[in-house]
Amino acid sequence: MFKSLETCGAEYGRLRSLEIGVTSRCNFRCAYCGAYDLLERQVLSPADVVRVIEALPDLERVKLSGGEVLLEFDLCEQIIGYCSSRGILTQVNSNGTLLDEEKFERLEAAGLGVLHVSLNHVETAAHAAFYRVSEKMFPRIVRAVERSVSSSSIDTVVETVLFDETEATLPEVHRFAAGLGVRRHEIQMEIPGVHQGYTGTLGQDRLCEAVARLVEARDPRCTLYVSCLSAHLPPGGAHWSRLAPLFRDPGVVRADCVEGKAQLHLHSNGDVLICELGCPEVIGNVFEEDLLTLYRTSARLRDFVRGKHEEGTHSCFRHCDRPGERRGASRGPAFLPVPRVRP
Ligand SMILES: C[S@@+](CC[C@H](N)C(=O)[O-])C[C@H]1O[C@@H](n2cnc3c(N)ncnc32)[C@H](O)[C@@H]1O
Ligand code: SF4
């Protein structure tokens, strides 16, 4: 089920989820995103992915992310088909603009579990202006969400990033999604990232207020999942006291961080990252070392797990110089290293 790992108190010791960045190519250029245009020199083949997954005895979930994942549709379809045959839940994270009926039918046939679509606006003009994309895009996203909601096998999730663009409109986006038939709405705290130069964050008070206002305005038919709160609000602080009662409502779910603890990110060049956006530290490469061995033996990962999950002292944003400030101009694309060994 969606976010079951994030709500079950998953412990370090079993690698239960893998996020696979199948590509960093994207048809969008979202200013806040650090996951596109990484210019990888090597793309995992379906056989590479199967080899990695086969060696993970505790794997319960595979999330396909990117870049725009569906630019690698055939690869996604093959991974989903393989995972379904093994009883592993699959999730596709997509901007929703590349889907049509044929692709939906292929995803359903492959056994896709969750389609997770980004939605930060409620109408065409604002969407097109913010993303600097054609006005054709927003209606495509809406159609994709509606088609997904009508699927008997796919669980639809809409995700909204909480950042300055959505701070005031979050309740409106939520009601819009609920009106489309969406019953799971993920609110993702913004993650500052150095890659494209975006390090703006709202600050703790504004994040806390925005979440509280949204909960008050929640459509009772739609469950809210709030992700990455602990990246911004240290556990035990005053903001937690304010928010904790809100999570007593079964329709408002706090999705705990499982990055590094029960989930790792596998990039398409074989690099293994602790968390793609929050802690993009590379702990190894699957073309050089077995993923399970990396998970069990990486000293960097162990440090992260201790600091982030056990002692609560790790800042997810240590890769940023000054979180809370926007740098302005983009630094342009980043290059990922070429794996040193290719078996
Ligand atoms: C990197 S995208 C890849 C999948 C797809 N292209 C999409 O937009 O949904 C995966 C998710 O990360 C979110 N995301 C991107 N940049 C982020 C940031 N700086 N902070 C928080 N979430 C972010 C996106 O909104 C999206 O829901
Ligand atoms: S958030 Fe998704 S759609 Fe936007 S640039 Fe990143 S990968 Fe592309």
From TrEMBL:
Residues 10-227 form the Radical SAM core domain. The keyword Transcription regulation does not apply. It comes from Streptomyces zingiberis. Its cofactor is [4Fe-4S] cluster. The keyword Metal-binding applies. The lineage of its organism: Bacteria, Bacillati, Actinomycetota, Actinomycetes, Kitasatosporales. Residues 323-343 are annotated as: Disordered. Signal peptide: none annotated. InterPro entries: 4Fe4S-binding_SPASM_dom, Aldolase_TIM, MoaA_NifB_PqqE_Fe-S-bd_CS, Radical_SAM_PqqE_MftC-like, rSAM, rSAM_sf. This is Radical SAM protein. It comes from the Bacteria. Keywords: 4Fe-4S, Iron, Iron-sulfur, Metal-binding, Oxidoreductase, S-adenosyl-L-methionine. PROSITE patterns: MOAA_NIFB_PQQE (PS01305), RADICAL_SAM (PS51918).
